[in-house]
Amino acid sequence: MLELNHGFRVVDLHARLDPDSEEAVATRGREISAERLERELHQAGVVCAVVSPGRRTEGEGYLRANNAVARMSVDRPFVAFARINGPRDPSGRASARLRNLTTSRDESHADPEDVEQYAYDDRFHGFTLAPAVDGLPDEETLDQLVNVGLPTLVHVGEAFTPDDAVETLLDRDFPVIFAGFGGYPLNRDLMHRSIDLLDEYDDLYVDTSYVRFRGVMERALLEHPDRVMFGSGAPEAHPNVGVMELLTLDVSEDAMRRAFSKNAARVVTELGPGEQ
Fold first, then answer.
1. pTM of the predicted model, to two decimals?
2. Mean pLDDT (whole number) for 18-28
3. Which of 67, 69, 192, 200 sees the fewest Cβ atoms within 10 Å?
4. Cα dist. 1→4, 52, 127, 216, 249 in Å?
5. What is each CA distance from 59 to 63, 105, 110, 138, in whole angstroms?
6. pLDDT digits (tens, 9 = 90+) for 65-121
7. Residue 228, Cα to own-chain centre: how many angstroms?
8. Residue 222 contacts by C-beta under 8 Å, 6 or more apart in sequence?
């Protein structure tokens, strides 16, 4: 794929990096090495990307995968986020609420001590949550996210909706970034709901991964130019695709510049100029 020459400084809030490429292709459908991810980012003009591991098998936990991603990020333009899981059903169903009253962590689940260790390990600069597949952390662990105050990228969509996030995450005091405008997979109504929530929550942001709807992205950039961050969703999508979609929007150059780098650097300081 051709290299893009767009003149913007671009950082990527949403990329996946797996330490076990053979398992990755078996469970997630695409094999890509750290070297290839770095090359694809370079082709798109992306100078740095947030990376975290993909889904692990149930019962495995994320400690080893997180540490491996952190090691693979050394001397590369990657900023590692630690992926954490939990025992609670994230859906808003009454039956889920009832089960959550009696559920408890096992050894594979992240606990408050894990969050604290990740936060004060200079290899990690934020967290990733995918409640629909990994479960939601318990209250004590979520409270620790508040205590450390690092940005958290949250996979939000049909299985864990923006309103589910309102009930469990958004009243807490730490930066939350909805992956894919909170509408995965391609649910336009949920994306618009996420944009509505930007009016209510000052610490809420959205990334552009897998959005694909120009009108949705233009609305967010026009109404909330300081809350939108570029995310490619690599390796499922080539970073070139996401960059080109943002470049072709009918918004100002200033709004694009904010989405491509300024907003992200304000929330994740390691993505700022001079940090790589």
1. 0.94
2. 60
3. 200
4. 9, 24, 31, 27, 21
5. 12, 11, 11, 16
6. 999 999 999 999 999 999 999 999 987 666 666 666 668 899 999 999 999 999 999
7. 12
8. 251, 255
